[in-house]
Design a protein that fits this description.
mainly beta; 3 helices; two-stranded antiparallel ribbon; 18-stranded antiparallel β-barrel; 465 residues; Porin
Length: 465
């Protein structure tokens, strides 16, 4: 089955009293148009979920009240199956405090594709995707709960893309002029050994980014780590934003106990530059493993470069993206105990995983103010390594990239969407699979076909005081 409508768009936090919107809301396509035309780089410094702007309320206005409830049922029909969903979210904003809860019900046949879970009852599976409380003022942000995490300079980041099932975490930020310091600590889904032993998995990270005073250049650097073990708990040393993770390896008291090296860290850096008011270029790089000595092993790196633009063609608002991504054969995976860069069988970083080279092109043309045409094409060369693979980067320096056998994919999605007063109607053709099936399962797909989707948008609001 295919995931045709999953847009992850950066939405700036603007005014207290407006409300966060989840990843499954049709408002995202409207926000994307605004983002690519305006190229406001401070958007990429904000925490997810982002607050909707007034422009995005053109079709589905949120009530100007302190609390809102929104219902988003979806009916999806394709040549090879159906994908019906029900989404309910409630939000509340009072002074500097924001709360959001988002519940999603899906057909049981798509459990692994959306939630990474095999459990269902009566053919239905449900999950709380987002549930958090956030305090924010001009200088500080503190958020606790469950929500997708996006770090990087693009909505398809190879650092953390926000497309994996959400996880519980704490996120703290301090704004110091043009600089922002952020620290994150959370718990991923657990894994189990063959004898039923539960292995707990944790994630931490910190980053510093700088935005130029004229809002034309954003630069960020940081590191993140996954650490696991039967008796592991949240490591406070990994929450210190001023202590690099590499130094914990020199401290014998901080070495993991049990079998194997159960700490897998990644260094990252990113930038985005506004070349023109409606054109920006970006780059991201991850360093999972770099061979300083002659070890005979391959480096484990990743790079993502691209551009976003907005213009008018024949007086029609048109936005687009072009990107190139390369993730080395042994990036994201490690010889520790369940320390691969995934959560609930979904990639945390690049959505097609590791051992991959790809080129993506996306164009949206607004034929009328309420009708837009989406043209999406991705070329993928996928090697043999998966996020479910074991680590084997030993005497591999001469091996080809991607590793053999290489599978070549041509993923296409063409759709025409109509925004109406109470919903969205979409007709299209696609052969795009769920991302985790390529990154984690390594299945080969040949099915394709037409699809029709209708999503109802309905809600109401009220004041709390």
């Amino acid at each position: 089955m295919k995931k045709y409508f999953y847009l992850n768009i950066f939405i700036p936090l603007l005014l207290v009293g407006q409300h966060p919107v989840t990843l499954y809301d049709p408002l995202f396509a409207l926000q994307l148009q605004s983002l690519k035309f305006n190229q406001e780089l401070d958007v990429y410094k904000e925490s997810n979920p982002w607050i909707n702007t007034s422009q995005a309320q053109k079709y589905y206005p949120l009530k100007e009240t302190q609390a809102n409830i929104r219902i988003l049922p979806q009916a999806f029909f394709a040549e090879n199956g159906t994908d019906h969903q029900f989404n309910l979210w409630t939000s509340a904003t009072l002074d500097n405090i924001t709360m959001l809860a988002d519940v999603r019900l899906i057909q049981a046949e798509h459990n692994m594709d959306y939630f990474g879970s095999e459990y269902s009852r009566s053919g239905i599976n449900g999950r709380v995707n987002t549930a958090f409380v956030r305090y924010e003022n001009d200088r500080y942000l503190a958020q606790f709960g469950r929500s997708p995490v996006v770090w990087g300079s693009t909505y398809s980041s190879i650092i953390q893309s926000g497309l994996a099932p959400s996880y519980e975490h704490f996120d703290g930020k301090i704004n110091m002029g043009d600089f922002t310091v952020e620290v994150l600590g959370g718990q991923l889904g657990s894994e189990y050994l063959s004898d039923g032993t539960r292995i707990k998995r944790y994630i931490s990270g910190h980053q510093v980014n700088w935005l130029s005073c004229n809002n034309s250049l954003l630069i960020g650097v940081g590191e993140q780590i996954i650490y696991t073990g039967q008796n592991r708990s949240l490591e406070w040393v990994y929450l210190n934003p001023f202590v690099p993770y590499v130094f914990t390896a020199f401290d014998k008291d901080e070495e993991p106990t049990g079998a194997g090296d159960n700490d897998n860290s990644i260094i990252f850096m990113y930038l985005r530059y506004n070349y023109k008011p409606n054109l920006s270029v970006y780059s991201e790089m991850i360093i999972d493993d770099y061979q300083l000595d002659d070890t005979g092993r391959q480096n484990a790196l990743g790079i993502n470069v691209g551009l976003d633009w907005g213009t008018h063609i024949f007086n029609k608002p048109t936005t687009g993206s072009l990107s190139y991504t390369q993730i080395d054969s042994w990036s994201y995976i490690h010889h520790g105990q369940f320390t691969n860069w995934e959560n609930r069988s979904h990639p945390i970083g690049y959505y097609y995983g590791l051992d991959v080279r790809s080129v993506g092109m996306l164009t949206d043309i607004w034929v009328t103010p309420s009708l837009y045409l989406n043209l999406d094409y991705t070329y993928v060369e996928k090697g043999n390594n998966l996020l479910s693979s074991g680590w084997g980067n030993d005497v591999t320096e001469a091996d080809p990239f991607p590793s053999v056998p290489v599978t070549v994919y041509h993923f296409v999605n063409i759709s025409l969407s109509r925004y109406m007063k109470n919903g969205l109607l979409e007709l299209g053709w696609s052969n795009k699979p769920f991302d985790n099936q390529i990154a984690h399962d390594g299945q080969y797909f040949t099915d394709y076909g037409l699809y029709l989707k209708y999503q109802l948008v309905w809600g109401f609001g009220f004041d709390l005081e």
